[in-house]
Write a structure and sequence with these properties.
Elements: E1 29-35, H1 41-52, E2 57-59, E3 68-75, H2 83-86, E4 90-98, E5 100-102, E6 111-114, H3 121-127, E7 133-137, E8 146-147, E9 150-151, H4 152-157, E10 167-180, E11 183-190, H5 196-207, E12 211-221, E13 224-225, H6 232-236, H7 240-245, E14 259-262, H8 264-271, E15 284-290, E16 293-301, E17 304-310
Parallel strand pairs: 3-12, 14-15
Antiparallel strand pairs: 1-3, 2-3, 4-11, 4-12, 5-6, 7-10, 8-9, 10-11, 12-13, 15-16, 16-17
Length: about 325
């Protein structure tokens, strides 16, 4: 005769079993990282992701391995808005070596030519204005731009040159910080998509001696500056809560957009995907809040606010 099965015991409050652990709080926010030279942007991202114990992460535009400086990293819900910083203006400090050109326009390439440098500060100051304002730039072969589904650098490594069309971009300003030929240092403020390596090569060509980058530091991206960034070493020296305290809120990426605050009923309707009334003057993308809680982005139009990119609120 079989013994009767024991009745299942109810689980204690708070989870399945007495030893149930609370779910970890998701990591959402933006880390301003000071990427060191010598590693890829993705390597820096993965290191920071592990230190923060984050599940979802992305960056806002790569820096070449030889370059250092500001690399904003997005975690969790902030990744939904990373494109707005990807398209923002950038700032760089570029160190040029006059008289030497390389295959890549930077120190990682092979030297292709050397020339005498008979350049004075006045010569440089006369040339730089030709590279400010709206200009055209041919993207370098050693770049991640795609051609027939493959990045250009793969063709370059195979010795294949692909025709590239010039692209329009804007150089907001170039300041000559140091000029001691054959070395000079520039501060460059430019639109997204500018290749500083190509700019250095073009300036060198205009000076008649050629040039390549020997160092590059990103100093600004959108409204963020390098002096507010943190190194990987500094991040590693902190405990978990202190690391998370360094994160900026996701809406910092869209702070340039106007803000709209909704009441409880309208906020709930928007989160359900419905268009809600609004008093926002004009049209276009806006930041939407319920009280102080950021809900995401909506499109303001004559029919109301239509949800466009919302954060998870559960």
């Amino acid at each position: 005769m079989r013994e009767p099965k024991p009745s299942p015991q109810p689980s204690p409050p708070g989870g399945e079993g007495a030893n149930a652990k609370p779910k970890p709080k998701p990591i959402n926010g933006v880390l301003l990282l000071n990427k060191p030279a010598g590693i890829t942007s993705n390597t820096a991202l993965q290191k920071a992701k592990r230190l923060l114990n984050a599940k979802k992460a992305g960056h806002t535009g790569t820096l070449d391995p030889f370059a250092d400086g500001l690399l904003p990293l997005c975690f969790g819900e902030a990744t939904k808005f990373s494109a707005y910083l990807l398209d923002a203006d950038k700032g760089y400090r570029a160190t040029l070596q006059l008289g030497t050109t390389t295959t890549t326009g930077d120190p990682e390439g092979e030297v292709t030519a050397t020339r005498d440098v008979n350049v004075r500060r006045a010569d440089v100051e006369a040339v730089l204005p030709h590279f400010t304002g709206e200009i055209e730039q041919i993207p370098p072969m050693h770049s991640a731009l795609k051609h027939q589904g493959r990045p250009l650098y793969e063709y370059a490594r195979a010795g294949i040159d692909v025709e590239r069309l010039p692209r329009k971009l804007t150089i907001r300003g170039i300041e000559l910080l140091e000029c001691a030929p054959p070395r000079m240092v520039l501060d460059v403020r430019c639109s997204a998509g500018t290749y500083i390596r190509t700019l250095a090569q073009d300036i060198g060509a205009a000076l008649g001696c050629g040039a390549h980058l020997t160092a590059l530091t990103r100093t600004a991206a959108g409204g963020f500056a390098l002096d507010a960034a943190h190194t990987l070493d500094a991040l590693a020296a902190l405990d978990g809560p202190a690391r998370q305290a360094l994160l900026l809120p996701p809406d910092c990426l869209v702070a340039h957009l106007p803000a709209v605050r909704l009441g409880e009923t309208a906020a709930a309707a928007l989160l359900q995907g419905r268009v809600v009334p609004h008093t926002q003057p004009g049209t276009g993308l806006v930041r939407v809040y319920a009280g102080e809680a950021f809900l995401g982005l909506a499109e303001a139009g004559p029919d109301g606010l239509a949800p466009r990119r919302l954060v998870a609120t559960a």
